[in-house]
């Protein structure tokens, strides 16, 4: 009986230690109440968060605790009763005791309408692909933010952008969808190739998932070309 008790006690400590280890790279989506508690009216005004917060997250790792807000302009509602956004903004704040410091910000917008010619109808965050994970096992979360636009044909001629923050440095993959080879293009920041291999692999898998879900049309050999450090990828 004593041995069983000892084993149970050791198991408890092992589970507790594992749980404590997991919390160093923990993240969660905030509820509406939790979002409003952190992103108060005064706080939003001070930090120029002028758009409605569509989704908010918190995560913590060995460097501290962070809060992320994804906001969209919500300019109008179309005939399908979908919210149409002309602009998106994201904010990342680090919390240290009583101080809240902005670490990075994202600002982007749909292609402006010129002389009645509307190339894109809306832009929004693709939270299906947004992640807050430690991808290379260094104890630091590597946030991935994904958003995109709708063109005349929806996803097939809209744009997509993948942003990954590694140790606070942003790396972007910008993509123009098209069913026509000549107008389909992917631009990869050169910093992508200095990212740890697990992060590069994860981003490529994410791109493959986007293709599978028909949210992106990447060139057939895009993965191979990215391996060859092609900064601009097309179907030449």
UniProtKB/TrEMBL annotation:
Q: State the superkingdom.
A: Bacteria
Organism per entry: Pedobacter planticolens
The positions making up the signal sequence are: 1-19
Listed A to Z, the keywords are: Signal
**The protein's name:** GLPGLI family protein
């Amino acid at each position: 009986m004593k041995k069983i008790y000892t084993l149970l006690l050791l198991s408890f400590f092992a589970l507790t230690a594992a749980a404590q280890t997991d919390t160093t790279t923990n993240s969660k989506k905030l509820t509406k109440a939790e979002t409003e508690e952190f992103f108060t009216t005064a706080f939003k005004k001070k930090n120029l968060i002028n758009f409605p917060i569509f989704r908010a997250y918190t995560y913590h790792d060995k460097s501290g605790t962070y809060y992320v807000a994804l906001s969209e302009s919500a300019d109008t509602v179309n005939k399908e009763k979908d919210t149409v956004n002309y602009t998106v903004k994201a904010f990342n704040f680090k919390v240290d005791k009583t101080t809240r410091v902005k670490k990075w910000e994202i600002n982007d917008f749909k292609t402006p309408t010129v002389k009645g010619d509307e190339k894109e109808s809306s832009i929004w965050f693709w939270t299906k692909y947004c992640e807050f994970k430690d991808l290379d096992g260094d104890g630091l979360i590597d946030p991935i933010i994904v958003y995109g636009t709708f063109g005349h044909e929806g996803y097939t001629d809209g744009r997509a952008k993948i942003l990954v923050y590694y140790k606070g440095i942003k790396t972007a993959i910008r993509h123009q969808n098209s069913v026509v080879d000549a107008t389909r293009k992917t631009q990869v920041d050169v910093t992508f190739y200095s990212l740890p291999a697990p992060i590069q692999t994860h981003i490529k898998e994410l791109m493959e998932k986007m293709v599978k879900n028909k949210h992106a049309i990447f060139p057939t050999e895009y993965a191979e070309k990215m391996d060859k450090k092609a900064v601009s990828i097309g179907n030449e």
